[in-house]
Write a structure and sequence with these properties.
It contains 3 helices and no strands. With 75 residues, the protein is mainly alpha-helical. This is Peptide synthetase.
Length: 75
Amino acid sequence: IRDFLRKKLPEYMIPSYFIQLGSLPLSPNGKIDRKSLENMEIKVEFDEEYQKPYNTIQQKLVSIWRKILGTDGVG
Protein backbone atom coordinates (compact mmCIF):
# COMPACT_ATOMS: atom_id res chain seq x y z
CA ILE A 1 0.00 0.00 0.00
CA ARG A 2 2.76 2.40 0.98
CA ASP A 3 4.61 1.92 -2.33
CA PHE A 4 1.40 2.58 -4.28
CA LEU A 5 0.66 5.73 -2.27
CA ARG A 6 4.20 7.06 -2.77
CA LYS A 7 3.54 7.08 -6.50
CA LYS A 8 0.31 9.06 -6.06
CA LEU A 9 0.78 11.30 -3.01
CA PRO A 10 3.41 13.53 -1.42
CA GLU A 11 5.24 11.91 1.51
CA TYR A 12 3.50 14.02 4.17
CA MET A 13 0.10 12.64 3.11
CA ILE A 14 1.07 8.98 3.57
CA PRO A 15 -0.07 7.54 6.92
CA SER A 16 2.59 6.53 9.45
CA TYR A 17 0.88 3.19 9.95
CA PHE A 18 -2.00 1.16 8.59
CA ILE A 19 -4.51 -0.91 10.54
CA GLN A 20 -5.86 -4.12 9.06
CA LEU A 21 -9.41 -5.01 10.07
CA GLY A 22 -11.26 -8.20 9.31
CA SER A 23 -14.32 -6.09 8.52
CA LEU A 24 -15.62 -2.60 9.12
CA PRO A 25 -18.22 -2.18 11.87
CA LEU A 26 -21.60 -1.35 10.39
CA SER A 27 -24.57 0.52 11.80
CA PRO A 28 -28.06 -1.03 11.70
CA ASN A 29 -28.55 0.93 8.44
CA GLY A 30 -25.59 -0.82 6.82
CA LYS A 31 -23.34 2.25 6.86
CA ILE A 32 -19.86 2.35 8.40
CA ASP A 33 -20.21 2.88 12.15
CA ARG A 34 -17.67 5.65 12.66
CA LYS A 35 -18.20 5.84 16.42
CA SER A 36 -17.29 2.17 16.77
CA LEU A 37 -14.13 2.79 14.73
CA GLU A 38 -13.16 5.69 17.01
CA ASN A 39 -13.66 3.56 20.13
CA MET A 40 -11.68 0.53 18.94
CA GLU A 41 -8.66 -0.43 21.05
CA ILE A 42 -5.79 -0.66 18.60
CA LYS A 43 -2.22 -1.61 19.38
CA VAL A 44 0.28 -0.18 16.93
CA GLU A 45 3.53 -2.02 16.32
CA PHE A 46 6.37 -0.35 14.49
CA ASP A 47 9.09 -2.04 12.48
CA GLU A 48 11.82 0.10 13.99
CA GLU A 49 13.51 -0.78 17.25
CA TYR A 50 13.11 1.61 20.19
CA GLN A 51 16.04 3.98 20.61
CA LYS A 52 16.50 5.54 24.02
CA PRO A 53 17.07 9.28 24.27
CA TYR A 54 20.80 9.89 24.40
CA ASN A 55 20.97 13.35 25.97
CA THR A 56 19.03 15.49 28.44
CA ILE A 57 17.21 17.47 25.75
CA GLN A 58 15.88 14.28 24.16
CA GLN A 59 14.92 12.94 27.61
CA LYS A 60 12.91 16.09 28.29
CA LEU A 61 11.22 15.93 24.87
CA VAL A 62 10.32 12.27 25.37
CA SER A 63 8.85 13.10 28.78
CA ILE A 64 6.76 15.92 27.32
CA TRP A 65 5.44 13.78 24.45
CA ARG A 66 4.64 10.89 26.81
CA LYS A 67 2.48 13.21 28.89
CA ILE A 68 0.78 14.74 25.84
CA LEU A 69 0.14 11.41 24.09
CA GLY A 70 -0.55 9.39 27.24
CA THR A 71 1.75 6.57 26.17
CA ASP A 72 5.16 5.14 26.98
CA GLY A 73 5.88 4.32 23.33
CA VAL A 74 7.78 7.51 22.54
CA GLY A 75 11.33 7.32 21.28
